[in-house]
Amino acid sequence: MPTPAQQLIPVGLDRFGALVHAVERWDDPTPCSAWTVRDLVGHLVTEHRWAPHLLAGETMEQVGDRYDGDLLGDDPVRAWDDAARGSRAAWATADLTGTARFSFGEAPMTTYAEQMLIDLTVHGWDLARATGQPEDLDPAAVDLGLAYARPNADRMAALGIIDPPIPTNSPDPAVQLLALLGRRA
């Protein structure tokens, strides 16, 4: 039985993909201070190239450095589409009952699904903000993201994965999620 995050990953892939297809300027800055639009999309392409391997039980050592460097080439949209297609297929059949070893340590596969959904959701907002597209987030993904981010945001910031949380009094769950992950909506 797929987990809620696993069920929402295809929606996240579609939403992010629609944003990628509308990019006009790849060198524009994003809310991720060190990344351009191209860098941001490249990050997601790398993450989703890795997904089929990790979901199949391969280790980081087995995958090696095959996804190091520029995976976007001359056609970032096609690179995204290819990565998303492989990731979608892997998530559709993935058994998330086990654990895997990641760069940050060992974690349950269900945690991996939650992190991938948050990545798609929040980086989708980053891409939308950077490219002037609608910044609305999937409410179901936001709810799951908040459930994960509330107890983990400080730890993720300490690891350097995200910027430190930004205080907010907003009642909007999307604004709360973005703030927890170091973004000003």
Written account of the structure:
This protein is mostly helical and 185 residues long. It has a single domain (4-180), classed as Four Helix Bundle (Hemerythrin (Met), subunit A) (Up-down Bundle). The protein has 7 helices and 2 strands. It has helices at residues 4-21, 37-55, 60-63, 76-93, 109-131, 139-158, 173-180; strands at 99-102, 105-108. A two-stranded antiparallel sheet has the order 1-2. The model has no long low-confidence stretch (mean pLDDT 94). Residues 14-128 form the Mycothiol-dependent maleylpyruvate isomerase metal-binding domain. This is Mycothiol-dependent maleylpyruvate isomerase metal-binding domain-containing protein. Pfam families: MDMPI_N. It comes from Saccharopolyspora gregorii. InterPro entries: CHP03086, DinB/YfiT-like, Maleyloyr_isom, MDMPI_metal-binding.
